[in-house]
Amino acid sequence: AATGRGKSNLVKTILYDLLDNDKCGKLIFDPHNEYYGTITQKGLKDHPKSPEFLEYYTIRGTSGALDLKFNMNLINPAHIMGSISLTDAQKQAIVVFYRRDRNNWIQNIFKDIPQAELKVLGINVQTVEVLRRKLGILLNLNQEDDGTLTEKGIYTSSGNEQTTHAIIKSLSNGKTVIIDTSLLEGSEEIFIASIIVEGMFKEYKTLKFQDKLQDRPVISIVIEEAPRVIGKKVLESIDNVFGKIAREGRKFQIGLIAITQLPSIIEREILANMNTKIILGNEMGPERRALIDSAAQDLSDDYQTIGSLDKGEAIVTSTFTKFAIPISIPLFEDFIKEGKKKQNSKTKIVSPGFS
C-alpha cells in the first residue's frame, strides 16, 4: 500500500483482535512506536487482556515496559553476517576470533593485538581495523584513546543474558511481544531482529526434529519496510534469517507479516510464496503489476481498482480462498470501542439475592 492508505491501522486491528489468542505468538518490530500506544494514542496496551498477553521492550522510560538490552557475549558471527555486508576476509576473521574465545570475541577485536599474532592467525591488520569500525557502528561501541571500550547502545558485556530467551519463551506461550526500535539506527533494528528471529527459528527447528512442534503456537513476525530484509539486493549480498523464514518457515510454524509499499523490490520467489496478501491502494504502476503477477488469483482486471482503493479498503488474495475478496477495514479506535460495547453487552449483572 502507498503511504497514508492505512497499513498500520490494518495491522494494529488484526493484532488487537488476536492479542488474547494463545494459539499464535506475535513478534512486532516497531520502527515508529505506533503499536503499543501512548497517553494520547490508542494501541495494543488498551486491550483488556494486555497485562496477561502483551510485553513491550523499549529503551524509553515507559511504565510497565521491559528493558531493551542484550548481552553482546551471546552474539555469534552468523548474526553479524546476516546483518551487514562483509568481505570474505572479514567473515573469516570474525570466525577465527569467535573460535578462540566465544564469550569475549567482540571485545577481543577491539584489543591491541600484536601484528605477529595476527599473522599467525592469518588475519590482516587492515581487516581488523575495518571490523572495529563496522562493529562499532553496528553495536554502538566506542573505543577510547586508552583502549577502553565504551558501550553507548543497547548491547552490554555484563548482565541481560536472558533477554532473547525471555522473548522466545513469551512467544512460545502465545503472547504478543513488541520491540520498540524507533530510537535506534536502521542497522541496529535489523541486527536486533536477526538475533531474536534466529533464536526463535532455531528453537522451533529443534522442536520439529524432536516431534514436539505440534504443541507450540504458530509464530507471526511483523516487519515494517520489509524490503530491508527480504529485498532482492539485500538477499543477493546477505543470506539472512528472514529470507530463510520466507522460503521455508511454514514447515516450522513461523511466518512473516511483511509490510511494504514497494512489493516490486521484494525477491520475486518470496513474494510469490506468500500465501495471503492484503492489497491496499497503490497508484504506482510497477507495484500494482508486482502484486497482480504474484497474486493467488487472477487480478489482471483489477489493475485500475488497486490504484483507486480508498483508505480502509483492500483486496485479499489468498491460496486459502477460491477468489479474491474485497474488504473494509475499520478505524482502529472505532474497532476498540465496538469491542468494548460487545464485551459490556455480554456481562451478566446479578443483583444481591438473585441468580
Total helices: the number is 16
Helix content: 40-55%
Secondary structure: number of strands: 13
Instruction: Give the helix/strand class.
Output: alpha/beta
- Note the run of SSEs as H and E: HEHEEEHHHHHEEEHEHEHHHEHEHHEEH
Pfam families: DUF87
Protein name: Helicase HerA central domain-containing protein
Organism: marine sediment metagenome
InterPro entries: HerA-like, HerA_central, P-loop_NTPase
Short description:
Residues 1-197 form the Helicase HerA central domain. With 355 residues, the protein is an alpha/beta fold. It contains 16 helices and 13 strands.
Question: Topology, please?
Answer:
Layout (H helix, E strand, L loop, with lengths): L6 H12 L5 E7 L19 H4 E5 L7 E2 L2 E2 L5 H5 L6 H13 L4 H5 L5 H7 L3 H15 L1 E3 L5 E3 L3 E2 L6 H10 L3 E5 L5 H24 L8 E6 L3 H4 L1 H6 L3 H8 L5 E5 L9 H6 L2 E4 L5 H10 L8 H6 L4 E6 L6 E4 L3 H15 L9
Parallel strand pairs: 1-8, 1-9, 2-3, 2-8, 4-7, 9-10
Antiparallel strand pairs: 5-6, 11-12, 12-13
Helix pairs in contact: 4-7, 8-9
